[in-house]
Design a protein that fits this description.
heterodimer; A: 6-stranded mixed sheet; 8 helices; about 35% strand; globular; B: about 350 residues; Rossmann fold; 7-stranded mixed sheet; 5-stranded mixed sheet; 15 strands; about 30% helix
Chain lengths: ~450, ~350
């Protein structure tokens, strides 16, 4: 082995992250927050205190578990409960030396993704209710519609809220977002003293080239202003050029959703914490994960091109052979994927794009709004327009009525899959796809 | 079989664009390309009548199909044949709609057009067979159409072998693995040299050649159009904020300005605050009136067309485009400003 390859073999873009997973098999409300034998108890008062903010009025906490005859409507975001290990500094003694989850929001905006992180696996904290520009989402906890969204298989802690009288909606959204993140960290801390059910070592990407093909996850995030934005270390990426990050940073909450449009085509915070493309690349023994390139989705075509060309060059700069490109949002965002696929192919990097189809109710219309011209390897996460029937349920959280179909939130519903929260997930979270009749 | 043939005003020999507004009419026997089609079909089949209509008249309003169907029925046919429409958008749209209306009414039908014609998306459930791209390819197109008619006459369904075109429906289903996992597998296949594999065929949208600039704007009639979902306050006609299935028209006559509070955008894809504060940001009526007053444009078309371009299906949007073009031509409009959001 020559000196160069030794150096490349040793150089890494981080120190790696140890995930300590605590399985959640049940969830309910109680006096005090706790975690025992897989059961998560959410302390009502603690939750209310963590969400207290001048911009928020009354806040209600509920739990909804898989199989419950419950529908959660107007879902805004979903967050996986995580917190940092307390005693995992390099000398084993410095409390809090791993930093904090959700940097730039809950913790200081410092580079994260190292040390230990506790995860409540099988649980999520959801916010649900009205915000401007938020298209109404539905999430079934039981019945046929439940298989459409991975979130239906979670024990969900649901936060409903009233805005404080006169509070600007942007401040309501920010307070809700921060409160939910704080609650998610608080719930994970309740489990952090328990022995983990499993431990996962997340390796950081290596520099240089290895024996396996190197692949980058190119993750486009929506940047369309208030209520349609995504925060990276607490900051909007609107106007930025793409940046490369260590996937371990995602696991610590470096990316937080502030995007409430497109129920099926959004990437909840949960999906950034558990980036499915990153997970699938880690699980493959035939590729080496070469990091994540985060890209804004500008709304102007020449900016889309500029961002796409820069993204492709970043992918090339880390010595990648291939890339998987994903989006957030509707037809406009098809262009962000298509342009990147072509820009990557132009640099000799093989590319695959994930798209939801907009093929009409009968599935006969062209599925893409903007198609690549040089790349052609596409994955379908399902047809947005196809109707789905959701059975009536006993309880609804998040609201009493659904404006999109003008029905009670507990009614039997027929609506486009586009309204089912998380169902067509652009980051490839779900199993839904679309194909011609065989 | 008794056949009624539908053609547009051009192939009926009535005239070109100047005659695109002529209303529906019927002539006995075969006309224009129908004569060549009749010769190919032989003595077992007869084109008993030809129904025709101007493209603008027929394409600007989906209800024109009913007028046309009444004429078709008056000839008591066993089959309706529409086209070939080649890549002509208005003609194809009408052929598709008429064939669909006919099948729905119980009269078998077949249309002929190029796969890129937007009318293809309107023909379901009627079969469409492929034609060439342009009128020069009439002969081969009619030969294929004649064979398809023979197949239908035998009581058989048309299939790919008959040149039948149309997208087969795609349906949602659950895969065994997540989309991300399938993405990794697809990338591995691609890295191994497979350049064809995909889960989704690439759509072909064709391309639009822009018209030549106006020779003299001062003598032109100009229309204002928007996909920004600008509607009168309260959205009286309930335009959808996303996935629009229709478009609407509203009067501008007597209005010099679009007052704040009188109009609103119901578009679901962008923040409408600025547009609602000053609707001219979506529809520049104020400037257009100024320009008309200064004589820099001829006249302003006194109604605007609007829809919501947000998650709208491409096929629907293409049909809107054809309908708007026909509508505006009928109204004598030479140019339009279409604002996008």
């Amino acid at each position: 082995m020559n000196a160069t390859s030794v150096r490349e073999g040793q150089r890494r873009f981080g120190t790696g992250l140890r995930l300590l997973a605590h399985e959640v098999t049940g969830a309910g409300l109680g006096e005090e927050t706790g975690y025992a034998d897989g059961v998560l108890t959410v302390g009502r008062r603690e939750a209310a205190d963590l969400l207290a903010d001048p911009a928020l009025g009354a806040v209600r906490v509920s739990c909804a578990s898989p199989g419950d005859s419950t529908r959660i409507v107007k879902v805004l975001d979903a967050v996986e409960p995580r917190c940092k290990g307390q005693m995992s500094g390099s000398d084993g003694a410095l409390a809090g030396s791993d930093g904090e989850v959700f940097p730039g929001l809950v913790g200081p905006a410092r580079l994260c993704g190292k040390g230990e992180t506790h995860v409540l696996r099988g649980a999520a904290v959801l916010s649900a209710g009205f915000l401007p520009r938020a298209q109404e989402a539905v999430l079934q906890m039981s019945g046929a519609g439940a298989e459409l969204s991975p979130l239906s298989a979670m024990h969900n802690v649901v936060i409903e809220f009233e805005p404080a009288p006169g509070a600007p909606w942007e401040e309501v959204a920010a307070a809700l977002r921060l409160g939910v993140l704080r609650l998610a960290a608080h719930l994970a801390r309740a489990a952090s003293a328990a022995a983990p059910d499993s431990v996962e070592e997340l390796e950081p990407p290596r520099a240089g080239s290895g024996e396996l093909p190197r692949v980058v996850a190119v993750t486009n995030i929506q940047t369309q202003g208030a209520f349609k934005d995504v925060l990276v270390y607490g900051r909007s990426m609107a106007g930025s050029l793409p940046t490369w990050i260590d996937p371990c940073e995602l696991a610590d909450g470096a990316v937080v959703s502030a995007q409430y449009g497109h129920p099926a085509l959004k990437n909840p915070t949960f999906v950034h914490q558990n980036n499915p493309v990153v997970a699938a690349l880690r699980a493959s023994e035939e590729v080496e994960l070469a990091g994540v390139v985060l890209c804004p989705e500008p709304v102007v075509e020449f900016e889309k091109r500029l961002v796409s060309e820069h993204a492709a060059r970043l992918v090339a700069a880390v010595g990648a052979d291939g890339a998987i490109v994903t989006k957030e949002g509707g037809g406009n965002a098809d262009g962000d994927v298509a342009l990147k696929l072509d820009a990557l192919e132009d640099l000799g990097i093989q590319s695959v794009g994930l798209f939801a189809e907009m093929a009409g109710r009968d599935g006969t219309a062209p599925g893409l709004v903007v198609a690549p011209t040089r790349a052609n390897a596409l994955i379908s996460t399902g047809n947005y327009d196809e109707l789905v029937r959701l059975e009536a349920c006993d309880r609804a959280l998040g609201g009493e009525r659904l404006g999109i179909v003008d029905a009670a939130a507990t009614d039997e519903l027929e609506l486009p899959v586009a309204a089912v929260y998380g169902s067509l997930n652009p980051l490839g979270w779900g199993r839904l796809t679309c194909a011609g009749e065989q | 079989m008794r056949i009624v043939h539908y053609v547009n005003q051009f192939f009926a020999g009535v005239g070109g664009e100047e005659a695109a507004g002529v209303p529906p009419a019927l002539r006995e026997g075969a006309v224009g390309p129908g004569r060549a089609l009749a010769a190919l079909l032989g003595p077992d089949h007869e084109i008993v009548a030809t129904v025709f209509c101007g493209d603008d008249y027929a394409a600007s309003d989906a209800s024109a199909s009913e007028e046309l169907m009444a004429l078709v029925r008056s000839a008591s046919p066993d089959l309706l044949v529409a086209g070939p429409a080649f890549t002509s958008g208005r003609y194809g749209l009408v052929c598709g709609r008429l064939a669909a209306a006919s099948v729905r009414a119980g009269l078998p039908a077949v249309a002929s057009m190029h796969p890129e014609n937007p009318g293809l998306d309107e023909a379901e459930p009627a079969p469409v067979v492929e034609s060439g791209r342009v009128g020069r390819e009439m002969r081969a197109s009619l030969e294929r159409l004649a064979r398809a008619i023979e197949t239908l006459a035998r009581g058989e369904e048309l299939g790919e072998q008959d040149g039948r075109i149309g997208r087969s429906p795609r349906r949602n289903r659950l895969a065994e693995r997540t989309a991300a996992e399938r993405g990794v597998e697809l990338l591995l296949a691609r890295l191994a040299g497979d350049r064809e594999r995909t889960e989704m065929p690439l759509p072909s949208f064709g391309s639009v050649t822009p018209s030549a600039p106006l020779e003299d704007p001062a003598r032109a009639r100009i229309a204002l159009l928007t996909e920004g979902a600008l509607v009168p306050m309260g959205n009286p006609d309930r335009l959808e904020s996303a996935r629009a299935t229709r478009w609407l028209r509203y009067q501008l006559e007597g209005l010099d300005q679009l007052e704040e509070g009188a109009f609103q955008s119901v578009h679901g894809g962008f923040s409408t605050v600025a547009a609602n504060a000053d609707p001219h940001r979506l529809l520049p009526l104020d400037v257009a009136r100024d320009l008309a007053g200064e004589g820099r444009i001829g006249t302003l078309h006194e109604e605007y067309l609007t829809t919501a371009g947000n998650g709208t299906q491409v096929a629907t949007a293409r049909s809107f485009g054809v309908e708007w073009a026909a509508e505006l031509r009928k109204a004598g409009v030479q140019a339009a400003i279409l604002t996008a959001t």
